Amino acid sequence: MSHKSYKDTNNQHKPMKEFSRFACEYNTYNQIQTIVANELVNMIEKREYGSIVDIGCGTGSVYKNCIEKGIIFSNFYATDGSIDMLFEHPESAKIEKQLFNFNLESSCVLFAKNRYDLLLSSSALQWCSNLENTLSHLSCTSKYLTASLFTNNTFKTIHGTAKINSPLQSSEEFIKAFDKYYDATYELRSYKLHFKSKEEMFRYIKHSGVSGGKHQMGYKETKALIVNYPYDYLEFEVLFVNAKSIGF
Question: What is the mean pLDDT of the chain?
Answer without folding.
Answer: 86
